[in-house]
Every structure is written in C-alpha cells, then in structure tokens.
Amino acid sequence: MSVHNLSIRLGEVGRQDEGLAAIEEAIEVYRPMAVAIPEVFAGRLRTAQATRASLR
Question: Residue 32 — φ and ψ, nearest 5°?
C-alpha cells in the first residue's frame, strides 16, 4: 500500500514516470495476493490498475 500511495504522490507533483514505475511495482506485489486472497486484495489490485491508468 505504501508504494501505491507513493505513486499517487509522485503523480500529484508532476513526476508521472516515477509514479508509473512505483505503481507497476505495487501491481506486481498485489497480483499474486489477489489470486491467493481475492476477498482482501482484488479490490486493491483494481484500484492500483486504475491509478496506473491515471498516470499514463
């Protein structure tokens, strides 16, 4: 979650490339957890993917 939050803050200050790299890292972490425990992490993965779309 911290890396996800970092990506948002980087985007807010105009550092989209760095924010995009951070959200990609968060998505890599969330993806296997969303498969293993979808009731907890599927929503977080979707939110991270939406954040990635907003940084592009």
Answer: -65, -30
Largest CA distance in the chain: 34
CB 44 within 8 A of CB 30: yes
pTM for this one?
Answer: 0.89
pLDDT digit string, tens, across residues 2-20: 999 999 999 999 999 999 9
Name the H helices within 1-37.
Answer: 2-12, 16-36
C-alpha–C-alpha distance, residues 20 and 30, integer Å: 15
Residue 56: pLDDT band by 50, 70, 90 thresholds?
Answer: confident
